[in-house]
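User: Assemble these into one structure.

Assistant: Restating your components, then the assembled model:
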Amino acid sequence: MIRRRRAIFGFLQFLAASPLLRADKKYSELSDPMLRLANVFDFAAFAKKKIDPLAWDYLDEGSDDEVALRDSRRAFDDLIIRPHFLDHDVSKIDTSISLFGKKLDQPTYMTVTGGKNCFVANGEEEAALGAGASNSMMITGGSITSSLAQGKGPKVWWQYTTATEFRTKNQMVNFAEKLADQGCSAISVTVDIYQVSHRERSIHNGFVRSWCQGDGIPRDGKGQLIYKPNDVLWTTGDVPAPRPFPTPTWDIARSQFTPCDHQRCDDFGRYSEGRQVRPVRRDCFQSRRPAARSHRRHH
Ligand SMILES: Cc1cc2nc3c(=O)[nH]c(=O)nc-3n(C[C@H](O)[C@H](O)[C@H](O)COP(=O)(O)O)c2cc1C
């Protein structure tokens, strides 16, 4: 457990560009394999060895056939970070920004990830401790009261919600006030409630999502999965029970959408089912794909 904790902790420190990982070490000090991890993919390989294979798939997989995931990864190769150390003074680099009145050391945050208990026991609190120690911003689903009460949680954090608390004005106000009292600086509304993603690795694995909100992946002494009669397996990617449409999240999001956002929704099919389909706005799609690789060579 200690090693798992250290793995997660180290990963968070990496995200925060921690001095631990930035500092050069003498050969004699390099007994800790964590210090040889050079990039986020090294951390991924390290984590894969530590966590249950089913938890790994849940963490690592993309939706459907994962073509979009591979496409996104390839697109990163087309991004070039150009160092400007010959024409700027880089002896003091300030990556801080202000966001909703709070200062962040770097413009990154720990993203919305439900179900961290599959990776480490009490995962949300562990992540909160890591965010606190590395001074990273966190978007949490809640349940980090213990680290916050100890003063060890994130200094800047947002709450994510699928907006179930937004059905009445009173609910909304109570929810916001409670969060403000705890030091939360913003609410992040996620849109993942209407359709559960079709995760093929998890479907093949007979994965039960609620394991990740409980005690992690249950196995017997021989390593076999233990199912309970009421366990709901990840099967088709549909929600187990029909949900009303529009959801509160959808109502909120719709009011914020630009015409191009609406067009993308139509393009991806959800909004248009049984509803009016607008004429295609070609201008919304001109810059959707990164420039082809050959484009790089011209620079
Ligand atoms: C294990 C895991 C759990 C996630 N849980 C949620 C969730 O509950 N709600 C949500 O909106 N997004 C969730 N996400 C999506 C992430 O917030 C994020 O959008 C996604 O990982 C892509 O981010 P990236 O481009 O930085 O990799 C989850 C992602 C992972 C890997």
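The CA atoms of residues 97 and 104 lie 5 Å apart.
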